[in-house]
Amino acid sequence: MSSPRESEARAILKSVFGYDDFRPGQWEVIEAALAGRDVFAVMPTGSGKSMCYQLPALVAGGLTLVVSPLIALMRDQVGQLVRAGVSAASLNSMNSEAEAAQAWDRLNSGELRLLFVSPERLAGEGLVARLRRLGVTRLAIDEAHCVSQWGHDFRPEYRLLSKVREALGDVPVTALTATADRQTQADIAQQLFPQPPKLVIHSFDRPNLKLSFAPKEQPRRQIDDFLKVHRGGSGIVYCSSRGRTERLAQGLSEKGWKAYPYHAGLEQTERNRNQDIFLQEDGVVVCATIAFGMGINKPDVRFVVHADMPGSIEGYYQEIGRAGRDGLPADTLTLYGVDDMALRRRQIDEKQIDDERRRIEHKRLNAMIDLCESALCRRSALLSYFGEQVPACRHGEAQFRCDLCGPAAPELSDATLDARKLLSAVIRSGQRYGAAHLADILTGTQTEAIRRQNHDGLKTFGVGNDKPKGAWMALTRKLFAAGALAEASAEHGGFRLTEKGEDILFGREPIALRVDQLAERRSRRGQREAARADGLDGDTAALFEHLRQLRLSIAREEGVAAYIIFTDRTLIAMARERPLGLEEMRAIEGVGERKLAQYGEVFLDAIATFSG
Predict the structure, then answer these.
(1) pLDDT digits over 484-501, tens only?
(2) What residues does the Helicase C-terminal domain cover (predicted)?
(3) Which residues pair with 600 in a beta bridge?
């Protein structure tokens, strides 16, 4: 039986936000916060972390100070709260004088329930003291992994938050993050809390995401094929360089996509414009470096592509977590190659860090490489990294899906003989050539470089002509990933044997590797089926698109992101249920009282007059 406090929280959850029930893990955090306890929550993106500090602010009253890392994120969250009828504001460098004055008026009157600020703003003189006089009742820290030196988005300003807490009168703290391994969790707790907090660790599993990986063959074509099944959806393509984001965005634009680049080198106005278009409109693709990331508060991102291998599983998980925050099916694809692996290792070696930090970063990179080359369920491997032991997913299940499970699952095979051939070619050619040249040696291909170096006279020349060049290049990548090969030169590349490589070559150690399946381009039928991953039939899908267009026109008129009006999940529910009146509309998930009053009649009319 619910307590009076829980009943009150559930009533506000429905009337303000339009939700009938809490998501897994939410009430545990909210209950502890309402009891005045310190709470540290590790919950996946899409699990509703923001509700864990928004709802206590409305139930308990008083002023909750929310530390948020990005101005765009806090402005977006404030916009959503205000439209739901919640008294919220932000103080940041983008505020106009009128906005700042209005925020302070509401603070001084005691009206404000949630105030969003950046950690940098709190580091300035005077603000914390002024807020203490006004009586902050709780401090909420979003993206709390930024406080840890082991976190992938470490920001020194977050280290000051323990002092901010003290200056505010040791108010209770709710800290939340989606990405933290055990070492990072321990560091966050030590940095933020004088005593052990209530720890809530919810499963990292994202049942609506599909994980797919592929070795780089023709990256532009692989990305094109992937995106074809997502026409009309919004997504992010992460690239490792600024130039690549611009080239890829231009190429996608030429093929009819609304595609825009995003990286730190763009002018601020262009960067803001491209981000706003992505946040506010449907069917937009952003080609971005990881500068575009933390705090992207768009629930209906349908896909995330990594055009280059991420540097760690933490970063990978955070980035794919931007897809499918609304709980609807979303797709991910990660392309990787031996050049990515070598680059990431070189970046770690060139950093000005101590040996222990370097060791940990190499360990994290190796875990990412292992995930790419895994022959087992990727879902199971990913969750195992974060300390969760789960069985492999089964083909076709509506849970965390991956490309390695099902009838076509790859197998491990003894690759020792082929590995010894390749490693011998590396040794005999001088341990300084790349994958393509080594493949030419093994396949017996007469090239100018082969003849110039007299490599057609090597004993290994042509010993692998039973396999195509691509297979030998793939084996080079796998041996590099397995630690049998290392980069010969940071300047010129190429490969040399490691101690493990010597053990394999001289018969002291066998090696088993994944048997890769040949990539197949999706049929047009498969593209159509994937494009309707939301499960809508023709007429319902047409009504959903009609409602999306209505939503977009309202959003443009009001100058806000489309999903702030209603999320895709809510529009899909409208299209399926086809409510006839306000009471039926009120029952739709995501329709709170304020939005019902603002938009209910307009959407009811659109549903009633829709002719298909």
Answers:
(1) 999 888 777 799 999 999
(2) 222-369
(3) none
DSSP H or E stretch at residue 70: none
Which residue segments constitute the domains of the chain, with CATH numbers given? 4-201 (3.40.50.300), 209-402 (3.40.50.300), 412-514 (1.10.10.10), 534-609 (1.10.150.80)
CB atoms within 10 A of CB 347: 12
Q: Residue 572 is encoded by which pair of tokens?
A: 């899909």
Q: What is the pLDDT of residues 258-289, one digit of tens each?
A: 999 999 889 988 988 898 888 888 899 999 98
Give the whole-angstrom CA distance, residue 446 versus residue 560.
61
Position 51 pLDDT exceeds 90:
yes
Q: Where are the alpha helices (DSSP H) in 218-311?
A: 219-228, 242-254, 268-280
Tokens for 478?
């796998």
Residues in the chain: 612
Alpha-carbon span 319 to 219, nearest angstrom: 19
DSSP 168-195: TTS--EEEEES---HHHHHHHHHHH-SS
Instruction: With beta carbons less than 8 A apart as the criterion, state whether 487 and 477 touch.
Output: no
Q: What angle do CA 295, 317, 311 make, to 5 degrees?
A: 105
Torsion of CA 127, 128, 130, 133, to 10 degrees: 170
Give tens-digit pLDDT for 233-250. 899 999 988 999 999 999
Nearest-angstrom CA–CA distance, 41 and 51: 12
Instruction: State how far the alpha carbon of 527 is from the alpha carbons of 233, 531, 542, in Å.
Output: 13, 6, 18
Instruction: Say how far apart CA 330 and CA 360 lie, in whole Å.
Output: 31
In this structure, are residues 237 and 305 in contact, taking their beta carbons and an 8 Å threshold? Answer: yes
Rounded distance between C-alpha atoms, residue 571 and residue 555, angstroms:
14
Q: How far apart are CA 66 and CA 560, in angstroms?
A: 22
Cα 308 to the center of its chain, rounded Å? 14
How distant, in Å, are the alpha carbons of 245, 354, 522, 524 from that of 225?
18, 43, 7, 11
Hey, is 391 helix, strand or coil?
coil
Alpha-carbon dihedral sign for residues 391, 396, 402, 408: positive
- Rounded to whole angstroms, how far apart are CA atoms 153 and 122? 19
Q: How far is CA 243 from CA 179, 218, 294, 370, in A?
A: 28, 18, 21, 28
What pLDDT score was predicted for residue 381?
Answer: 87
CA–CA separation, 521 and 611 (whole Å): 36
How big is the chain by its Cα radius of gyration, in Å?
27
Please check the confidence at residue 527 and state whether its pLDDT lies above 50. no
Rounded to whole angstroms, how far apart are CA atoms 13 and 20?
Answer: 7
Amino acid at 567: T
Among 416, 312, 407, smallest CA distance to 360 is for 312
d(CA 526, CA 305): 19
* 295, 73 contact by CB (below 8 A): yes
Entry pTM: 0.80
Task: Categorize the per-residue pLDDT at 520 as very low, low, confident or very high, splitting at 50, 70 and 90.
Answer: very low
Q: Which residue has the tokens 């590797």?
A: 513
CA distances from residue 178 to 69, 380, 399, 607 in whole angstroms, order as listed: 14, 18, 19, 37
E-state strands within 446-599: 485-489, 493-497, 512-514
Q: Kindly state the tokens that stand for 544.
A: 């959903």
What pLDDT is attached to residue 462?
95
Phi, psi for residue 304 in degrees, rounded to 5: -135, 125
* Residue whose C-alpha is closest to residue 367's, from 388, 341, 401: 341
